[in-house]
Structure formats: C-alpha cells, structure tokens
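JOB MANIFEST
job_type = single_chain_structure
chain_count = 1
residues = 82
[input]
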Amino acid sequence: AIDANGPNRIDITPLKRTYMQVTIDDDPTKPALERWVSPSDGTVEFRGHRFSVRVLDREAVQIRKNGKIVSNGDTDLRITAQ
C-alpha cells in the first residue's frame, strides 16, 4: 500500500535535449537538478512531497508521478516552461 502522506516519486524522461531545473519541497536555494538533459541521459528519479520543474520546452520531457503520467492540474507538481 502507498502511504498517502509519504513521499511522492517523480520520474522525468527527456524526449529531446532541453535545460531543466527541478526543485523538491519548495526549496529554491537547493535545486535537486539544474542542467541540460537529453534522451541519452535516461530517466531521472526524485522523491519528495512537492516538486517544481522548469524546462525550456515542455514537450521535451515526459513526467510521471508515482508511475502515472502527470496532468497539468497536479497539486504536488508545478511545471513551468520558459
């Protein structure tokens, strides 16, 4: 059983090269990841309660939360494309 209050897991798969910044639990001073990613990097996994993902191109990444494709209305995940 999944603990409803436990950490979420997000998996981000780069579909094409893009710049990405991931912040976990609303702490912008310590990004979990801030670099260029490409499909050859494979899937990157993060654990936490809340996430903020900034990408140059939203179509360049596929994001899953706890194994399911993320919808834009997810309350634990904020996605910003620049």
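[summary]
The chain has one domain: 8-81.
DSSP finds no helices and eight strands in the chain.
exit_status = 0
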